[in-house]
């Protein structure tokens, strides 16, 4: 049963991804991206990380993607005829071979690492949000704060970059 | 008291030295009048000092040594700049400073108007310094310093008219011939040092008896070589006649009164050594006698007034050497003194004649000057009578004493030679007088108009010298027993003077000498006082002899062939050697250096630069291809990043983790 | 149970897709979207390992990744706007002022 869900989510994610990179109209690409994001969040649910599912949908799909769509609309681009790179056909074969190679390598790898202390049972006990919260605000507090600072910087930077510059005459007087 | 005398002794050479420095360094800034005052003034001061020293020596009768400057001391060798004042030195000093002073005064008039006036007096004073050092020194080194100094000044003064080729050549000849003598002298000094380990006179003379006869002979003969060179005896006399190229005062001072007597002084000083070497003494005597005769014969036919006087100087020096060789040292010094008086007088009077005739020196172009320049004539005549040896003038006493000594000690052959020489001396000197002042005038028309007597500044010294020539013999009277002999007894009266001559023999010898002199005068009067036809006839009858005498026995030519030409050829050979071989070597090295430099340059250009160029060019090619990466196209950059990532991951997998995690390893 | 390697393979495929999108597409905004795809692929990987290694670390890092993706998207789009003001084109090929 779980395998079916996994298969659905995985296949649709992959197809959405392929659509994102190959569709002509940018808005259509954006929509394909939306599908991708939602199904990736589904994969998260399969992994018992429902908090991330929520965050992904709210932040990624709800804010970031919307931002993309805003900018797309704002720029009002004409659809370009030549929307693929000139040398695209040459890349597809190496990409396929590369992908096969990568998968081959990954499958053969023995996955191991240090085990943590959050077994599935423990996570399911209080929910994923609780588990993430406990861990975040004790061991990873510093990184949390840094991310906050980073986001502040990103906001300020975006505003500064996108400001309408003063005209040349007024700039000279200043 | 003795300290002040010591100071006076030290001052004697210092006065002329100061005049040399002042006139030499600053002479061009002030007038000639001031320059000559420095010159003769300094000599006058020296003369006064000498008088003081002389008086002191008369009073004490002892020798005095004064050290002026401690020069070299250490180990075996002590050489000081020190002076020895004994009776011999006093006599020499009196002659040098006295006659020197008179000649300096004369030169003021003679050299008047010359461009190199100051230079002349600088050289003359330098000569005085050297001569004073020569006679005052108490060791061989100071003597040698003075010896070389007078040689140098002789060169400088003979070549005074330096733009005359003949003068320059004569000066060089004088210096070179002197040098030959100096080589012998140096050898003697070395021998003295080897034998005595000291060069002081007093110590050498005290220990002289320790010498073996062979060593004494060797030293004496070496000293003789030096004396022969300096005093122009056979065979090194050829420079003296040519030295007449210098101005007349130079001839008077250097080549008559003082420098040429240095050889005699040196022999007398070393008489202790000579006394031990009878062979050397005989050599000295025979050289003296032969020179006296030889030079007199040449003087018979010479036509230049100064050359006649030069040969007579050589001849009279021969008499002095004869006296030394016979052991009559006092007599030799006596003759030295009187010769200084009358030879200086003769030379300066000749200078007066030349001055009167505006430079004419050939006696064939003179004549009948007696009335035109009466003072000069009288003074020249006095000089001639003195040199001829006619009593009671000075020359008679001294020359007769030497001849008498020879006869009394049974050296009859030498006596004969001396007597013939005296006859010839008298003859040619009166010939000179008659041809210059008497007879018919053979003057050039232009010269005849300008004949004038010399100024008082020139006549004055001549009068003094003439007086000395008249009375200068009386210190040596009676012969072998006069004041002079007693004065010099401590220094020079060792050999052969104790032998008292019986008075009859003495008067006989004196009479003979007088007759010889008068005979010479008479013959000269016969030949030359009137028209000279008889003389020319005699010359024509013996053409060979006449020409030989006129050409001075061709000695100069002989020396030329024997010595001068081979030396020149040797010089040319050395020059060829230097030019071809040594310079060839140098040029070879030069060529080698050039070649190696060219090779290095070529290597640098073609090999090194090529290498560098390859690096540069290769860099250029590489850069050109790498530059294409910078397309500015973001896609391309992204592709490259991916490729790099691919490689990086593989590297990490393979190297870092050893491929273990994937099972993908280097196996 | 779904094996870990399945998730890893899915992640790999998505990652390659995103990479290909970055290289192929000429519209800059689509390129940014492809970058988002890559980020998501990495997130899947992380969360899968977090689950299978029983550690919270992966999920926390996934949160951070989402935050960073947000910031990056904002800045990137701001840059696009600035460039768009300069030249009326978002064609990547024409942004080649960095060329030699």
From TrEMBL, chain C:
InterPro entries: NADH_UbQ_OxRdtase_chain4L/K, NUOK/Mnh_C1-like. The chain crosses the membrane at residues 6-24, 31-53, 59-84. It is found in: Cell membrane; Membrane. The keyword Methyltransferase does not apply. It is a multi-pass membrane protein. Signal peptide: none annotated. Its EC number is 7.1.1.-. It comes from the Bacteria. It catalyses: a quinone + NADH + 5 H(+)(in) = a quinol + NAD(+) + 4 H(+)(out). NDH-1 is composed of 14 different subunits. Subunits NuoA, H, J, K, L, M, N constitute the membrane sector of the complex. Belongs to the complex I subunit 4L family. NDH-1 shuttles electrons from NADH, via FMN and iron-sulfur (Fe-S) centers, to quinones in the respiratory chain. The immediate electron acceptor for the enzyme in this species is believed to be ubiquinone. Couples the redox reaction to proton translocation (for every two electrons transferred, four hydrogen ions are translocated across the cytoplasmic membrane), and thus conserves the redox energy in a proton gradient. HAMAP family: NDH1_NuoK. This is NADH-quinone oxidoreductase subunit K.
């Amino acid at each position: 049963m779980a395998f079916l869900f996994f298969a659905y989510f995985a296949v649709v994610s992959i197809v959405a991804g392929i659509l994102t990179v190959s569709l002509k109209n940018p808005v259509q690409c954006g929509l394909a991206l939306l599908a991708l994001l939602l199904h990736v969040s589904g994969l998260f649910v399969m992994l018992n990380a429902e908090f991330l599912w929520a965050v992904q949908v709210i932040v990624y799909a709800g804010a970031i993607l919307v931002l993309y769509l805003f900018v797309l609309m704002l720029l009002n681009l004409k659809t370009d005829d030549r929307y693929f790179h000139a040398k695209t056909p040459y890349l597809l074969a190496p990409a396929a071979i590369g992908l096969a190679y990568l998968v081959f390598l990954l499958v053969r790898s023995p996955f191991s690492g240090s085990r943590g202390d959050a077994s599935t049972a423990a996570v399911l006990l209080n929910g994923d949000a609780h588990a993430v919260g406990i861990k975040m605000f004790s061991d990873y507090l510093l990184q949390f704060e840094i991310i906050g600072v980073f986001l502040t910087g990103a906001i300020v930077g975006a505003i500064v970059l996108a400001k309408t510059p003063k005209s040349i005459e007024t700039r000279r007087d200043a | 008291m003795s300290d002040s005398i010591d100071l006076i002794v030290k001052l004697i050479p210092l006065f002329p030295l100061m005049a040399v420095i002042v006139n030499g360094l600053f002479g061009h800034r002030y007038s000639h009048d001031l320059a000559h005052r420095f010159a003769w003034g300094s000599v006058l001061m020296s003369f006064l000092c000498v008088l003081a020293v002389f008086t002191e020596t008369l009073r004490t009768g002892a020798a005095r040594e004064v050290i002026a400057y401690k020069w070299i001391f250490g180990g075996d060798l002590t050489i000081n700049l020190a002076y020895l004042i004994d009776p011999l030195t006093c006599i020499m000093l009196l002659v040098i400073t006295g006659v020197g002073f008179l000649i300096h005064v004369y030169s003021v008039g003679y050299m008047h108007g010359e461009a190199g006036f100051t230079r002349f007096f600088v050289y003359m004073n330098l000569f005085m310094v050297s001569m004073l050092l020569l006679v005052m020194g108490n060791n061989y080194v100071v003597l040698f310093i003075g010896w070389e100094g007078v040689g140098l000044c002789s060169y400088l003064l003979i070549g005074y008219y330096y733009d005359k080729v003949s003068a320059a050549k004569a000066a060089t000849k004088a210096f070179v011939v002197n040098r030959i003598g100096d080589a012998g002298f140096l050898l003697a000094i070395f021998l003295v040092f080897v034998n005595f380990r000291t060069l002081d006179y007093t110590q050498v003379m005290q220990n002289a008896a320790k010498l073996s006869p062979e060593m004494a002979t060797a030293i004496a003969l070496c000293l003789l070589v030096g004396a022969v060179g300096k005093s122009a005896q056979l065979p090194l006399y050829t420079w003296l006649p040519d030295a007449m190229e210098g101005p007349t005062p130079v001839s008077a001072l250097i080549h008559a009164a003082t420098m040429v007597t240095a050889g005699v002084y040196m022999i007398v000083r070393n008489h202790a050594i000579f006394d031990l070497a009878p062979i050397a003494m005989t050599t000295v005597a025979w050289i003296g006698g032969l020179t006296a005769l030889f030079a007199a014969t040449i003087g018979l036919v010479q036509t230049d007034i100064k050359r006649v006087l030069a040969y007579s100087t050589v001849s009279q020096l021969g008499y002095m050497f004869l006296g030394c060789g016979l052991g009559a040292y006092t007599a030799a010094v006596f003759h030295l003194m009187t010769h200084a008086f009358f030879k200086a007088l003769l030379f300066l009077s000749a200078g007066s004649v030349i001055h009167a005739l505006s430079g004419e020196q050939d006696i064939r172009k003179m004549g009948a000057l007696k009335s035109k320049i009466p003072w000069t004539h009288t003074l020249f005549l006095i000089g001639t009578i003195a040199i001829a040896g006619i009593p009671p003038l000075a020359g008679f006493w001294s020359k007769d004493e030497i001849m008498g000594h020879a006869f009394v000690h049974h050296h009859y052959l030498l006596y004969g030679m001396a007597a013939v020489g005296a006859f010839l001396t008298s003859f040619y000197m009166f010939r000179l007088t008659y041809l210059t002042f008497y007879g018919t005038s053979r003057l050039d028309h232009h010269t005849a108009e300008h004949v004038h007597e010399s100024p008082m500044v020139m006549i004055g010294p001549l009068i003094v010298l003439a007086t000395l020539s008249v009375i200068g013999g009386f210190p040596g009277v009676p012969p072998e027993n006069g004041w002079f002999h007693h004065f010099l007894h401590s220094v020079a009266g060792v050999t052969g003077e104790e032998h008292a001559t019986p008075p009859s023999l003495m008067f006989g010898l004196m009479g003979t000498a007088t007759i010889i002199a008068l005979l010479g005068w008479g013959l000269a009067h016969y030949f030359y006082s009137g028209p000279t036809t008889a003389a020319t006839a005699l010359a024509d009858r013996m053409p060979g002899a006449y020409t030989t005498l006129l050409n001075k026995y061709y000695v100069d030519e002989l020396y030329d062939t024997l010595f001068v030409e081979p030396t020149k050829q040797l010089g040319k050979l050395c020059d060829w050697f230097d030019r071809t071989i040594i310079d060839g070597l140098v040029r070879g090295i030069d060529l080698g250096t050039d070649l190696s430099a060219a090779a290095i340059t070529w290597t640098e250009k073609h090999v090194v630069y090529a290498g560098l160029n390859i690096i540069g060019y290769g860099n250029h090619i590489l850069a050109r291809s790498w530059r294409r990466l910078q397309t500015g196209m973001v896609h391309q950059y992204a592709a490259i990043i991916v490729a790099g990532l691919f490689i990086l991951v593989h590297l990490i997998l393979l190297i870092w983790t050893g491929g273990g995690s994937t099972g993908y390893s280097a196996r | 149970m779904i094996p870990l390697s399945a998730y890893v393979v899915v992640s790999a495929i998505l990652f390659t897709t995103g990479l290909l999108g970055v290289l192929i597409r000429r519209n800059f905004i689509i390129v940014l979207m492809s970058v988002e795809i890559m980020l998501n692929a990495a997130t899947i990987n992380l969360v899968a390992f977090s689950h299978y290694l029983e550690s919270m670390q992966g999920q926390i890092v996934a949160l951070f990744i989402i935050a960073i993706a947000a910031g990056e998207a904002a800045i990137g789009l701001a840059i696009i706007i600035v460039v768009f003001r300069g030249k009326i084109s978002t064609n990547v090929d024409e942004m080649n002022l960095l060329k030699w």
